[in-house]
Amino acid sequence: MDLRVSDLTVARGGLPVLSGLSFVLEPGGALILRGPNGIGKTTLLRTIAGLQPPVAGRIEGAEDRVAYAAHADGLKPTLSVSENLTFWARVFGAGDIGSALDAFELGALAHRAAGSLSAGQKRRLGLARLLVTGRSVWVLDEPTVSLDTHAVGLFAEAVRAHLAWGGLALIATHIDLGLSEAGVLELAPFKTVLAPVSDDFDEAFL
Amino acid sequence: MIALLLRDLRLAVRAGGGFGLGLAFFLIVTVLVPFGVGPETALLSSIAPGVLWLGALLACLLSLDRIFALDWEDGTLDLLATAPLPLEAVVSVKALAHWLTTGLPLVLVAPLLGVLLNLAPQGYLWLLVSLALGTPALSVLGTFGAALTVGLKRGGLLLSLLVLPLYVPSLIFGAEVARRGALGMELTTPLLLLAGISAGVIALLPFASAAVLRVNLR
Asked: What is the residue-averaged pLDDT of chain B?
């Protein structure tokens, strides 16, 4: 099933940041979102993930299919790596965590407490969570932060395997992931130009 | 849902989980009251039901901000909101986990602490019954307050101010059941009202908590 976004306007803190955004992503397709800081990448991804409602426009094919990963990985420091992963696997109703641990080379760390991992290892665990969700639309916000080049390679492999399986990926990133097949969407042209505020309410007091 | 419950219980008993915080506070309050009001046994036994209920209520209040704050900080709440679990189920499970780690231990130790306050012998059963019926409402109301203040830095004070008025009916009827029980009086009316408040709160508030959580996650 396609992910269709048509004429979408998203807002952050009540102000529209991106508007008139449309794209279609087919199964097996990936889209890289690019744009300067503050353009609204995170806001767009949170809207598509269903965490906030769009101001205008439609998002089709995202509901109950999204696996979202943001800056925070949702890890509990006092639980071990495998306990963290097993929890998410059970929440999403998927069973096997072994292949997810292998995909991000976490097997040797499986019994360590997540709190004792390095930043890059935590991130790998956060990304391994995507594999146990069994969801087809990956919505990823800066997934490669604090990863080394080898781990970025592992991540690109995981995304490729996901696309080959028929999944979709929407990735906001500043670095080159080496995913040649992915389309790139430049967000700068969709930036909302704010009209000067002229509020009748204020004028009533002038 | 069971996975979430088990995870919350496991987190509560691991290092820094906060299990026992409410229990320790309850113990301290009830141990210190006899020192504060003096050793008169008649006076102590007449205030015992009220002091025990108040201690349990404040102990419950102490751990409320942990219900969502940690999950909010590490991003778990965002991920749970996109998970197949409905948010109403998430807040219900959170409230249940809070009750199991805070309310239930308070209910179980209250009779032991009743000894320190010279509670009348016939009052123990009703103290236990009133706390067992009343504390679930405290956890569910507290979860609602925690959902309202999630994301606020140091929202503990606001949380207490929001939740305390909602606790008053449970406190009034709960302490009344325990008091009448200790005096051997008829107690059906406050008992039914206490149970009714708990039942209504458990049935309705998870929907409100889930709604405010959705707004707060935006």
From this structure: 90
Residues A71, B84: C-beta atoms closer than 8 Å: no
Domain regions of chain A by residue span: 1-65+172-195
Range with top average pLDDT, A113-127, B69-83, B108-122, B163-177:
B163-177
Whether B218 has its CB under 8 Å from any CB of chain A: the answer is yes
Name the burial class of residue B64, with classes exposed (0-12), middle (13-18) and buried (19+) by CB atoms within 10 angstroms of its CB.
buried
Burial class of residue A80, CB neighbours in 10 A (0-12, 13-18, 19+): middle
Which tokens in the block code for residue A187?
A: 């967000």
Q: How far is B69 from A121, CA to CA, in rounded Å?
A: 24
Given this structure, which CATH class describes domain A1-65+172-195? alpha beta
Amino acid at A181: E
- Six token digits for residue B124: 């123990």
Cβ contacts of A76 on chain B, cutoff 8 Å: 7, 11, 74, 76
pLDDT at B206: 94
Judged by DSSP in three states, A49 sits in: coil
The helix (H) or strand (E) run that includes residue A33 is strand A30-34
Q: Of all helices (H) and strands (E), which one includes residue B77?
A: helix B76-81
Number of domains in chain B: 1
Of A182, A186, A125, A134, nearest in space to A156 by CA:
A182
Q: Are A79 and B10 in contact (CB under 8 A)?
A: yes
ipTM of the predicted structure? 0.84
Amino acid at B159: L
Residue with tokens 């046994």: B41
The whole-angstrom separation of Cα A34 and Cα A192 is 16
CA distances, A139 to each of A49, A69, A186, B39 (Å) = 7, 6, 17, 65
Q: Give the count of Cβ contacts less than 8 A between chain A and B.
A: 68
The alpha carbon torsion through B94, B96, B101, B106 (nearest 10 deg) reads 140
A contact test, residue of B74, B82, B150 with most A CBs within 10 A: B82
Task: Note down the domain range covering B62.
Answer: 2-217
